[in-house]
């Protein structure tokens, strides 16, 4: 593909980042993210980038910024879609705010279109950056903290089958099928390859805090009915902390047993679970909400509908719908303009129309609704969408609704 430049920054050129420049790209990333990784982690990042679609921004011959996209598959209502995970977006401090990210994303979007990737996603370092490029909050997460100095108070009886610890080497083979089943319920979940399970989830070393133990895996049920992946850390005199990284259960009783387990580990006084689903049943079956507290809520996966039509055609709908959407997309104008969305027993269609719009909204806000996390009526109430035909937002909301809240816990 030819390199392209953007008018506001004639000096920067955007083109594919060749493998020969991976080390320079990593140096740039560690500079921008203030990181100093060891040789092992650097080699891991290098390998990850090798498998990515990569774009560089060049000032003359010098690489001054990069962004990459990792080929993931994301669960969406009723199925899954290829979804590049945008990552390692970094600009040299000497070249910030000169349109490097803007130009690289334009180049990346073109490369995604060439691959027929209808959506893209990312985790943002700062929430303010990506809305302008059409990314919306596709999933949200809660940080939950549990005071485990006393037994976990529950309103339901936990499953009383025995718990067993799995070795990290054996865990992926045993956990994968259950995790995969949860992807059918919860949009926003990434398909975990065996390498992803091993390198990301079962990594012996916590990349961000070396004080944490290796991953521990506790399982319940044969066949598997639930699991928790957690790490612990304890300073000499301070009470220990249990960090729950992932917990999946097929029933509330199984979830209750797993939460009871992680809150009853000796020499620990607190459990922290980061990125829990906003509709985590724990928040209802915990008897004492002073003991189980949501301490933070945050945007998790930011979603970009690169090809709105394909994205809308390839998800399912919870109710029949017949509305004209007028989507505004400044970066990918092919998505803009009034389109007639219908879905029912005969299937789904989304075609351009001259009919007047029922709802107008920006592509980032449609992206926020796409997995079922944000609702069109909430957007109207917030002044972010305009409802031209009374009841249209409610009708669209009924169609986009998902039974479970969308949720993402895999960072990249
Ligand atoms: C998916 C990921 O990898 S998330 C990680 C993102 N990377 C980082 O946080 C590393 C450190 N930061 C950086 O490398 C850079 O500052 C980046 C990547 C965040 C931004 O790159 P830049 O090339 O400076 O962005 P660019 O010049 O294209 O900015 C486009 C617009 O976004 C705005 N913008 C960009 N970054 C920020 C920010 N951090 N805060 C507020 N506004 C921002 C710019 O002001 C500009 O606004 P305008 O169009 O109104 O003038």
UniProtKB/TrEMBL annotation:
Q: What are the recorded GO MF terms, alphabetically?
A: acyltransferase activity
In short, the EC number is 2.3.1.-
Q: What class of enzyme is it?
A: transferase
Q: Which Pfam families match?
A: Acetyltransf_17, Acetyltransf_9, SCP2_2
Domain N-acetyltransferase as annotated: residue spans: 12-157
Q: Catalytic residues per the record?
A: 130, 412
The question of whether Transferase is a record keyword is answered with yes
Matching entries from SUPFAM superfamilies are given as: Acyl-CoA N-acyltransferases (Nat), SCP-like
Q: Which UniProt keywords are given for this protein, alphabetically ordered?
A: Acyltransferase, Transferase
Q: Where is the signal peptide?
A: none
Q: Which residues form a coiled coil?
A: none
InterPro entries linked: Acetyltransf_17, Acetyltransferase_Eis, Acyl_CoA_acyltransferase, Eis_dom, GNAT_dom, NAcTrfase_Eis, SCP2_sterol-bd_dom_sf
Q: Which PANTHER family match?
A: N-ACETYLTRANSFERASE EIS (PTHR37817)
Q: What is the protein's name according to its record?
A: GNAT family N-acetyltransferase
Q: Origin organism of this chain?
A: Streptomyces solicavernae
